[in-house]
Amino acid sequence: MAIGQNLKSMKSTNRSALLYLLNKSGKMSRKDIAASLGLTPAAVTKISQELIQEGYIYEAEAVKDGQKGRSEVLLCLELKTKHVMGICSDKDSISFSISSLDGTLENIKTIKFINDVNKVVEYANEYLDETKYRGKIEGVGVCIVGSSKGYGIWELNGLKEKLERKLGCEAIIHNNVRSFAIAGTIYESKDREKSSLYFKWGPGIGSAIVNDGQVLSAGDRGVSEIGHVIVNPNGQKCRCGRRGCLETEVAMDSISQNNIIYDKIKLAALALMNTATILNTEEIVLFGSVFMDKDIAERFIQECLDINPYLSKENIRVSKLNDKVAYIGATAICARRLFFEKK
């Protein structure tokens, strides 16, 4: 039994590695895939045939092998034809979306935040009918504020089951900041060996750590992140129950006046640099509504550089996915669970 389980696990790992490799490289021959993954050509041929039959990859054009003069067929991912539904919540709003697994947005609708989970499920059901994608989606990704066990804005008891029963497909629920970090590894960096610290600002504050393509978490209580670092012990009470967390001090609703935004930049940059010093990641990736303002983003980055002279502009940047924050995290968690790492 153990041997069979190990063989099954190895096969799943090799399939996943092949898919992630094609995601990074675009197109590759079976021979090059075998060399890159350290697998035998026979093993790659068997895995690729199964993936072609399942509609995960397809054969593209053939190219000449410079050494032997024979043609090598290139393999590509089949992401454009597979669609998912996204439900992304923030402190003030919920975005419902339809996108393909390559990250292309097909439709999106944003409404004011609803606290009642049953109403969210009903709205999702209506949205699926409106967009005429019922029966055409691989699954639904749900990005929430807090953890997937009820901490934060939504009380999530039964949400997964209710969505799956109503929509007729698998539901994947994950923290919104970590979901965006997953999107970064799939759609932006694609370098699974790089370590990164993701920092979100606005409306809330959040962070996520990526190492070797995996988003790390010290638990699922939603408090072990930069947004809940205490910066003012006498400050306001935070949703986590403590006082003076960074989120309560610099979140969007506390900086509605432009004349105080720059004071908050210093505080947020200091908290980020202290965290980055401990983690020592290769890059810092910024995202969120605050960083959509180019002037604020540049000022924040400069403040970080002033605090840490060892940091350069090559190590800190605004994510290229920042304008897709309302849906890309939901797409990414579906792509990871239902495509790249499907069991």
Which residue ranges are poorly predicted, with pLDDT under 50 across at least 5 consecutive positions?
1-5, 220-224
Placed side by side, the strands forming the largest sheet appear as 6-5-4-7-8
Helix content: 25-40%
- Helical segment count: 10
Specify Rg, calculated over alpha carbons.
22 Å
Q: What is the number of domains?
A: 3
| Helix and strand run | HEHHEEEEEHEHEHEEEHHEHEH
Global outline: globular
Q: Mind telling me the CATH class of the largest domain? A: Alpha Beta
Mean pLDDT: 87
State the distance separating the first and last CA atoms.
18 Å
Largest sheet: 5 strands, mixed
Strand content: 15-25%
The class by helix and strand makeup works out as alpha/beta
In CATH, what is the homologous superfamily of the largest domain? ATPase, nucleotide binding domain
In CATH, the topology of the largest domain is named: Nucleotidyltransferase, domain 5
Give the second-level CATH assignment, the architecture of the largest domain: 2-Layer Sandwich
Number of strands: 13
Key terms:
five-stranded mixed sheet; globular; 10 helices; alpha/beta; Arc Repressor Mutant, subunit A; Nucleotidyltransferase, domain 5
Describe the structure.
The protein is an alpha/beta fold and 343 residues long. The chain has three domains: 2-77, Arc Repressor Mutant, subunit A (Orthogonal Bundle); 83-179, Nucleotidyltransferase, domain 5 (2-Layer Sandwich); 190-324, ATPase, nucleotide binding domain (Nucleotidyltransferase, domain 5, 2-Layer Sandwich). Helices cover 38% and strands 23% of the residues. It has ten helices and 13 strands. Strands 6-5-4-7-8 form a five-stranded mixed beta sheet, sandwiched between helices. A hairpin with a 3-residue loop joins β9 and β10. α4 runs parallel beside α5 (159-167). The two termini are 18 Å apart. Residues 1-5 and 220-224 have low confidence and may be disordered.
